[in-house]
Amino acid sequence: MFRVARASQYLAITGGGIDDIKLSKKSWVFPWQSCTVFDVSPVNYTFKVQAMSAEKLPFVLPAVFTIGPRVDNTEALILYARLISPHDKESNHVKELVEGVIEGETRVLAAAMTMEEIFKGTKEFKKEVFDKVQLELDQFGLVIYNANVKQLVDVPGHEYFSYLGQKTQMEAANQARIDVAEAKMKGEIGSKERTGLTLQNAAKIDAESKIIAMQRQGEGTKEEIKVKSEVKVFENQKEADVAKANAELAMKKAAWTKDAKVAEVEATKAVALREAELQTQVEKMNALTRTEKLKAEFLSKASVEYETKVQEANWELYKKQKQAEAVLYEKQKQAEARKAEADAAFYAKQKEAEGLVALASAQGTYLKTLLGAVENDYSCLRDFLMINNGLYQEIAKTNAIAIKDLQPKISVWNQGGEQGIGGGSGSGNGMKEIAGLYKMLPPVLDTVYEQTGMQPPAWIGTLSK
């Protein structure tokens, strides 16, 4: 069969005539060969990697990796065909494999960097993660086409970035307020200065205009005084007017100077007052900033202490569990040993009983054979067994040992002839037996006395000492 792969596919052929794996876009596939079609287009994998910085601050790193087989390297493509292509590239197996590699390298790299280094050096951090993950993916024939590392996210219960953003916002807001206050202060001062200058220039121009008008009027008057006889009076009158105008001008100048100085003093006081207000606000914001910083430090310290206490408690629990498991294991082994000893003792007793049963069975067979040989004569069998087992010899030996050191005392009693008893031989046979019995009493009683020290009853008689 002739097989043709699509543009994003490859044929992986194995079987007869092929040593390992043959990759091709089109090829003949014979009945003794197997052909698998796999896709080499990259796939996007989205992860949220939880890691911890060198200060033990946890964070979440959202990332999107575009990963696919390395199509420009035949060996890498063969690795992918051998290890990954049997599975669906969007299956949980491949996703867990890629996710495990990315999470492992990300956590190892993050543990060696502080939070500030990770936050400020996002580009370098991304490059390090990219390089480390690529080294691990090379063994599967995979390559990273694109890696998009998003902004770091706080783990619930650890709002480091939230506090950092609030701190930045407060600093920017404080700086903006200070800039606005300074600009407003400069605007108010400039406005007052411009207003004062305008008033001063207007007063100066009015005074100069009046002087010029008076001068021209005086010149005209002088021309008339030359003709008239009352020039002197008119000149004095005009001089008085000029003096009055000068006095009015001086008074106005003094008033303007006073207003300008008052405005300057008011502007200075307003600036000082505004500076004091701004300084108060700055101190308040600095106090708030220090308070937030101390809160963040205390929270971080408390979090670290909590994590440390939790780890220590877990370690103590783990040690106690292991100790309990060791004690339990030792008890189990002791019980097993005792059981094994009991089994061994039982086995030994069982074998001993089996040996006794076998011995008894053999002896029974032996006795039956002997009994058959002596034609069921039990007395003959008994005598044979006693002789065969040396029982008679043992009895003789025991009796010899028993009487070896004895020194028996033999007493001989003689009571005279038997004819004197009963007065005759014919009728005295019965009396002989009675006489013989009485003859036996003295030696018996004497022997009992010597052996036990007991005297016979008085009614029988007394022994001679």
From TrEMBL:
<comment type="similarity">
    <text>Belongs to the band 7/mec-2 family. Flotillin subfamily.</text>
</comment>
<dbReference type="GO" id="GO:0005901">
    <property type="term" value="C:caveola"/>
</dbReference>
<feature type="domain" description="Band 7">
    <location>
        <begin position="11"/>
        <end position="184"/>
    </location>
</feature>
<dbReference type="InterPro" id="IPR001107">
    <property type="entry name" value="Band_7"/>
</dbReference>
<keyword id="KW-0472">Membrane</keyword>
<protein>
    <recommendedName>
        <fullName>Flotillin-like</fullName>
    </recommendedName>
</protein>
<dbReference type="Pfam" id="PF01145">
    <property type="entry name" value="Band_7"/>
</dbReference>
<dbReference type="InterPro" id="IPR036013">
    <property type="entry name" value="Band_7/SPFH_dom_sf"/>
</dbReference>
<dbReference type="InterPro" id="IPR027705">
    <property type="entry name" value="Flotillin_fam"/>
</dbReference>
<keyword id="KW-1003">Cell membrane</keyword>
